[in-house]
Amino acid sequence: MSCKAGFVYSNDFTSYRFREDHPFNQMRVVLAKELLDAVGMLEDDHFITPRMATEEELRLAHSSAYIQAVKKASAGHLSEEEGLEYGIGTEDTPMFKGMHEASQLLVGSTLSAIDAVLDGNVAHALNLGGGLHHGFERKASGFCIYNDGAVGIKYIRQKYDYKVLYVDTDAHHGDGVQWAFYDDPNVCTLSIHETGRYLFPGTGHVNERGLKEGYGYSFNLPIDAFTEDESFLHVYESAFREITDYFKPDIIITQNGADAHFLDPLTHLSSTMAIYERIPAIAHDLAHQYCDGRWVALGGGGYDIWRVVPRAWAQIWKVMLDNEPFSGPLPVEWLKKWEKDSPVSLPSTWNDPPNAFKPIPRRAEITEKNNKLLEKALQLIHNQKKFNSS
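and the corresponding structure tokens:
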């Protein structure tokens, strides 16, 4: 299947930069884009130039007081005490010059992707600069200042009146987006993530089901630490397919954090590149089955910016274009260009080698726990279907 897709990109994405030693580094977007360039997968007519979000659009998901605080911090005029009230100036989300404008661009890039799809210019759009899913209405959190996913979904609801399925495969729970739509029956959220027993933000439990009219439209799959490919994909695909059939969305938005990989320095899952071939393929399939192809994919987490993120995110684009993943050797041109800058040895192939990490001694136990988690989630879906039809 060959599809028309749009690639949202600007070199200015790298202006979203907290400090040199901060783990969130948008250089990973450049590396992914250059990897796609090196294999000849990006043409001029693929590119979508992102716009800046307006303040009115930011207010779809953020309070005016919070936006003003970010603007003051951006200009260097926000005190440390004021900043902490809004989650700005913390270890995770320090202040930096121009932070408002840099964040405004990332939100605008997601809105540009949405408009390209919903105006019918492309079937799918990829915005690797987005996916900042931890931002709240009046507080920065977890490296995220403005929540482009939440703003984007509010924008869809307001401008297009479409039902939105938001699917988050970041190793960290997609908390900011979930809470923004916790009482909205027209937005369904699904997050598969490492259990909060070990990992920020500590939320994303199975019993977080929504409130009021939104009850039954929030789903969480908190998989165990050291989950490997087979169990991850079984839980993800089974739940994703059931939930899509239950909700029947008009558009699918995916957040594609690349931090479930075993090389990621901030998480404890044990996935390989194999999951990053299947994650977008399933979204692509379901978007065509239920949404006439309407699918917007965002970036997200991912903190091994050299060995993992470029390969993982390039796979999304390949699937968008022809529904087939990359395999075989990485382009020599890309490896030669970046090996001098990389602090680690770059991989030579799209796939990880067999036995890339030591065997997980609790594999059977972890798989069993994840299967029970899936059974509970599927039962919730079936119960909700019965309730809605009664």
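(Above: one complete record from the training split.) Residues 32 and 313 are 6 Å apart (CA to CA).
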